[in-house]
Design goal:
By secondary structure, the chain is of the alpha+beta class. The chain has two domains: 4-91, no CATH class; 99-140, no CATH class. Helices cover 18% and strands 24% of the residues. It is built from two helices and nine strands, in the order αβββββββββα. The protein has helices at residues 4-13, 125-140, and strands at 17-18, 35-37, 54-58, 61-65, 72-75, 81-85, 88-91, 99-101, 104-107. The chain has a four-stranded mixed sheet with strand order 1-5-6-7, with no helix packed on it. Strand 5 (72-75) and strand 6 form a beta hairpin.
């Protein structure tokens, strides 16, 4: 049989959204189901001794969960994804080998650098400027090497 505390934790963690900023002190008022990240150091009040954990308010009071590698949450205010990696939270970082939209790969692995235009017997300044701009944009986005 599952304990009521375990069900409360499950309710907090399934498809969890968390308040944006880690806090050291429990807020003065909470809504049931609200989830917070406790700062890594300096927890106070009910958060003392639970630094670095997730704190969720339930009908039975505060419940705490230590994050595990790969845990993903959504920041409530911004909708940005948070991920727990190598012992710390990362924010807004997407890791993938490709991006597929409607079954078509639109972004894959970074390609080798493309040389800028040089030489030639006929110089078209506008074409060179356009090519240089395209190359700069591709490099700025990390799509080709610098």
């Amino acid at each position: 049989m599952t304990s009521p505390g375990a069900l409360a934790l499950l309710d907090l963690m399934v498809a969890a959204s968390v308040e944006e900023v880690p806090i050291a002190v429990p807020p003065p008022s909470q809504a049931t189901g609200t989830l917070y990240r406790v700062t890594p150091t300096g927890g106070q009040g009910a958060f003392a001794g639970h630094e670095g954990k997730l704190a969720g308010w339930t009908t039975g009071g505060w419940r705490f969960v230590a994050p595990v590698e790969g845990l993903r949450l959504t920041a409530r205010g911004s909708g940005v994804e948070l991920a727990f990696r190598s012992g710390a939270w990362t924010s807004g970082s997407l890791r993938a080998s490709e991006v597929v939209i409607d079954g078509e790969t639109v972004l894959g692995a970074r390609q080798a650098s493309i040389a800028g235009p040089i030489g030639g017997s006929l110089i078209d300044a506008e074409a060179r400027l356009a090519v240089a701009g395209i190359l700069a944009a591709l490099r700025a986005h990390g799509l080709i090497e610098s």
